[in-house]
Amino acid sequence: MFAFRLGLLLSEYLGLETMLALVCKTYDGVKALETYDKEGSINKSAGLHGLAASIGRPLVGRFHVFCLENLRAYAGEFVADDPQRRLDLLKPRLPSGEHPPGFLGFAVNMIYVDSTNAFCLTKDGHGLRETLFYHLFSRLQVYRTRGDMLQALPCVSDGALSLDGGMIRSTGVFTLGLREQLDVKFPKNSGIPKLPENYFETEKRIKEMKWQKERMVEDMQREQYMLDHVKRSYEVKKEELLKFLAQGSAYSAQVFNIPPGTL
Ligand SMILES: *[C@@H]1O[C@H](CO)[C@@H](O)[C@H](O)[C@H]1NC(C)=O
């Protein structure tokens, strides 16, 4: 129930446009979604527009796309040995020095991220939590009740939610009234299934190795490209040199009256 309510709240906080946004790992992915003709208009038969048109549902209006490699990733520490790769964020403190009562956690850390998406998703080795979810939620705090949330106001930095529907979008921006029922919901926190203890560690290591392998392949491709480039410029220089020598021999043949081809 807790996860269900939190899922509803978070989806309401983000709004429909964001909930329906697309996520690309790379900028190349974004470019593939939409292309433009010479005049700068969208080519309706390419990318996502083409796909949508082909199933009879042409795209109208705008849609959001998050590009993981372009998002500014969270730069701080992570909770040690956490298979969920939660961000090690400082728990809020009231001016009195105490932690606010009813504080349940930071939204960014309360979302269950599938382990395939928690590590090494982007070229820089970032996962979904420190890129997409940190971008969306920043340090949004979650409280048990509206009362708890309002009492904690002095230490709310990037907004707060309460499970009973309280919402502060950002410092000084309160969202009052009744909850809207969004048709799109955040996936329910399915919890971490019971798996052997070292399962996540092993999975993480495999993922890291795969990631390193990808980087190595990229490095090799780059090296190969440079090698090819050097070879090509070598060929060009050789060509020039041979031409120069040939001209030179023709010239000396003229000067010394030697028949061409005997040098
Ligand atoms: C639009 O995209 C299609 C499919 O990729 C392509 O065949 C066509 O040449 C493109 N048109 C323009 C004007 O770029």
Automatic annotation (TrEMBL):
Keyword Signal among UniProt keywords: yes
Phylogenetic classification of the source organism: Eukaryota, Viridiplantae, Streptophyta, Embryophyta, Tracheophyta
Protein name per its UniProtKB record: Protein DEFECTIVE IN MERISTEM SILENCING 3
Signal peptide feature range: 1-32
UniProt keywords, alphabetically: Signal
Highest taxon in the source lineage: Eukaryota
